[in-house]
Amino acid sequence: MSQAAARFNDPLIHHWMPFTANKQFQDAPRIIARAEGVHYWNTAGDKLLDSVSGLYTTPAGHGRREIREAVTRQLEELDYAPPFQFGVPGTFRLAHELAQMLPAGLNRVFFAGSGSEAVESALKVAIQYHRVRGQGQRQRFVGRARGYHGVNFAGWSVGGMVKNRDAFGLGLPGVSHMRHTHIESNRFVMGQGDHGGVDLADDLQRMVDLHGGDTIAACIVEPIAGSTGVLVPPKGYLERLRTICDQHGILLIFDEVICGFGRTGHPFAADAFGVTPDLMTMAKAITNGNIPMAAVAIRQDIQQAILDAAGPDAIEFFHGYTYSGHPVACAAALATLKIYRDDDLFARGAALVPKFLERIASLRDIPIVTDTRGYGLLGAVDLATDGAPGKRGFAVLRRAFESGLVLRVAADTVILSPMFITTDDQLDEMFTLLRKILAAV
Ligand code: PLP
Fold first, then answer.
1. Phi and psi for 371 in degrees, rounded to 5?
2. What is the 152 CA–ligand 1 centroid distance (Å)?
3. Which pLDDT value is given to residue 3?
4. Sign of the CA dihedral with 262 first, then 276, 361, and 379 last
5. Nearest-5° Cα angle at 278, 274 to 282
6. Which H or E run includes 159?
7. Secondary structure element (H or E) that encloses residue 375, with its range
8. Which end of the chain, C or N, has fewer beta carbons within 10 A?
9. Cβ neighbours of residue 420 under 8 Å, at least 6 residues apart?
10. For residue 227, which atom of ligand 1 is closest to its CA?
């Protein structure tokens, strides 16, 4: 066989992997073949401790029988039905259940298939809401540096992670970015920092002063910026954003794709910080990561304005996905929410928080560690750059995998986000492994 043919038959080359160094991966693959509880197994049969809950998706643990059975039952009963002009029972049931647990006022739910789709949907609702109220000039969005709102065009445009933007052109027009919230004076703080909250949020006021408040449709932020490395809002920050939005008729969107469903020790970050947005995006843990699904929660009067503006027989919102509210995803989500309730899982996660944050903070004495921070069951450890940015972070990821630990890195930041079912012993094991790895890179 020629070398070219051998390469063509290489089982790894045909899959173009997302957010991955493909060439590097093909030379040294890390393949996860099985999962149960807080563990994975690789193809060699080695056991790995999952310290990121999948990808912030799986707080109830891998391989939950209840979800598997609900999905199987749904597939046997109704595998699929078109979501446009037809309904399936599960979507209504799930939206109703979500409305009961969401912050007061957020009680209309639009379904999508991914966090990226949820963000696009939320931004479109915002534009249309203003338009039907005679404020079609509100076309601008305000996002934030280091924000992550998925990879679709509007999402990366309002997002602020440079690598996710710089290969793809101009993006959406009329987007401005506030500064991110990671500042020197809050370094090595667990929970919310004391410094900078109001001043950083006043960036939104500066956009208002520059562009006119009545040109801005919405301000979108992750309450805690997750993907970039767990940036916790300083005290007063989210409250100040809320006030400025209220003063100028700007919709506040919280992207809770990571923060939602107990990650902060509360059902949603909005509950944790006591600030309620006008729209909220959710995904990931909505199905414990078992089936792709996302949702946008919308203030009732926002939906009502859009419904009222259309004629009695007219489609009100020309938007939707083939897989909006897929019946199998709804079954997985309903089973997941039942686990959260029956196992009191958010409380179980919340009980882990003090020990988890203490363990994150304890890594401060390692010479290469330049910051530690966290909130709820989201923690981050910044490492000093070693030559090229990201080199040391990747070395940690690779060494961790070889040592039996799956973690997440963003450039040279290590991110941990354990499952709510993690035991004290497993948490100890996680940090013992991590300390050993950090001492060696
Ligand atoms: N928004 C936030 C805050 C996220 O963290 C993510 C993914 O991590 C997304 C949106 C995009 O979600 P998805 O990858 O499901 O499109």
1. -165, 150
2. 10
3. 73
4. positive
5. 80
6. none
7. strand 369-375
8. N
9. 59, 60, 262, 345, 346, 348, 349, 352, 377
10. 5
d(CA 102, CA 270): 9
Mutate to test the pocket of ligand 1, among 257, 259, 291 (most ligand atoms within 8 A of CB): 257
Say whether pLDDT at 51 is over 90: yes
Q: Choose which CATH entry (2.120.10.30, 3.40.20.10, 3.90.1150.10, 3.40.50.12650) describes domain 31-60+344-440.
A: 3.90.1150.10
CATH of 67-341, one of 3.10.20.30, 3.30.200.20, 3.40.640.10, 3.40.50.720: 3.40.640.10
Q: Model-level pTM greater than 0.85?
A: yes
* Per-residue pLDDT tens over the stretch 344-362: 999 999 999 999 999 999 9
Which amino acid makes up residue 295? Answer: A
**Confidence band (pLDDT; 50, 70, 90) for 156?**
very high
- Amino acid identity of residue 20, one-letter, is T
pLDDT at 1 over 70: no
Q: What pLDDT sits at residue 7?
A: 75
What is d(CA 224, CA 227) in angstroms, rounded to the nearest whole number?
9
**Which residues are CB-contacts of 299 (< 8 A; sequence separation ≥ 6)?**
105, 106, 107, 108, 278, 279
Ligand 1 atom closest to the CA of 115, numbered from 1: 12
What are the pocket residues of ligand 1 if the criterion is a CB atom closer than 6 Å to any ligand atom?
114-116, 119, 148-150, 222, 226-227, 255, 257-258, 283
Return the biggest CA–CA distance within the chain. Answer: 70
DSSP state at residue 179: -
Q: Which amino acid is at 239?
A: E
User: Atom of ligand 1 at shortest distance to CA of 284?
Assistant: 15
Asked if pLDDT for residue 4 goes beyond 90, the answer is no
Non-local (6+) Cβ contacts of 258 within 8 A are 56, 222, 224, 226, 227, 284, 378, 417
Q: What is the mean pLDDT of residues 196-202?
A: 98
pLDDT tens-place string over residues 395-413: 999 999 999 999 999 999 9
State how far the Cα of 354 lies from the Cα of 54, in Å rounded to an integer: 22
Label residue 191 by pLDDT band (50, 70, 90).
very high
Domain residue extents for the chain: 31-60+344-440, 67-341
* Position 15 pLDDT exceeds 80: yes
Q: What does the alpha-carbon distance between residue 398 and residue 374 come to, in Å, rounded to a whole number?
A: 23
Query: Torsion angle of alpha carbons 162, 382, 195, 264, nearest 10°?
Result: 90
